């Protein structure tokens, strides 16, 4: 719109000049007007005088110096003359040599009509609304500086005479710059290309083409994704030979070949995970993943038991032994590979395996209570936590000297028919199906036999009573016989005294030992 208004302004000024010239001509007589011998005092034009083509080469941009004026007549002799036929006027553009992103050159106006050879030409750059005054010096030319791939639109007309049709032309400044530098940014599955002058490439509608082939497999070719500057669907940590090509107006202006490598990515899962357990260790082996996607920096192993977890990092080994484990426990072992890319660790998918440690030796049982069910009957209760069994089942065993071993599913033993007042040593342990644990020692002394003692005392009392009765009866008989013969016989018969028995006292301990022997 601005260009159009500028054009209308130029036409308006030219038309205004013609009208003013017609009015002044009416007031001028050839014989008496002094105006013919003088120049209008208010009109002064300083135009760009071009003496040679070489002087234009040293100018870098449009330059116009115009002094204020009320009209553009340089001589009254041209007022009112017929419009000039500008249809034969031609232009010629010569670009200055160089490899810059901004083009410069010279525009030469040719085929100027003879009637206009001494006139000043006013050209306007429509894009910038800048005027260029070109004098009648030969050649009619001006220089320009324009960004490449932009339009140079110029409208020209003579100052004192107008063209019947204003002379104008529009030229596209071509792309002459060739020194585009390519940068490459690698991803895990893609390669992105960047040119240092991508804005100029976009402006000039340069066609970009990117292809990559795998260095070790040249049969596979990967091309850019749509119109982006990126080649996708590549393999991680793989070397590629890539070609970047720029085409302008059907001509290849730049071809750059580069060899690069995509970044490392997460490795795939490991293969053939295997474990071999013992009662206190697990030996684990595996094979490297099929998809390494990088240098395969190492492996991370973890073994887990309930909430307890232990991690181990290995570099290049494919085996490891977890030690100091608990017997008969269900461990979960996880192994995953990883790659390192700069300061980032990329972990692959982990692979798990469940591994049970074998049976171990159980711990000692814990004695809960020892009680007497009788003076020679003992009951012993014990306990063992399940995690200390270290095996699939529990069978408790009791052994003691002089008795048969006892085996129970529960640790609850009752031992009867023991000797009285005897000290016994009991050994209790647990068998888990494979191993027997250490024995827990229990020492107990039985009590005396209260029933036997009472029986003995009863027997002793009965015997003693009977003995006393016999003595009393004997005394009675002796007294009765002596009363009958008291006068004739002496009180004590010497023969009867000889017939009496002497009874020695019997110790209680002897009677108790005799009783025990009878019981056995």
Give an overview of the whole structure.
The chain has helices at residues 2-26, 53-57, 198-203, 450-484, 494-499, 508-519; strands at residues 90-95, 102-110, 121-125, 130-134, 140-147, 151-158, 167-172, 182-186, 191-195, 207-214, 217-223, 230-231, 239-248, 251-261, 271-277, 282-287, 298-305, 308-314, 319-322, 330-341, 344-347, 351-356, 366-374, 377-383, 395-400, 406-408, 412-415, 423-431, 440-445. The termini are far apart. The protein has five domains: 2-172, Immunoglobulins (Immunoglobulin-like), CATH 2.60.40; 182-261, Immunoglobulins (Immunoglobulin-like), CATH 2.60.40.10; 271-356, Sandwich (Immunoglobulin-like); 366-445, Immunoglobulin-like (Sandwich), CATH 2.60.40.10; 453-519, no CATH class. The chain is an alpha+beta fold and 520 residues long. The strands form eight sheets. Strands 17, 18, 20, 21 and 22 form a five-stranded antiparallel beta sheet that branches. A hairpin with a 5-residue loop joins strand 25 and strand 26. The longest helix has 35 residues, at 450-484. This is LOC495208 protein. Keywords: Membrane, Signal, Transmembrane, Transmembrane helix. It holds the Pfam family fn3. Residues 1-21 form the signal peptide. Residues 266-360 form the Fibronectin type-III domain.
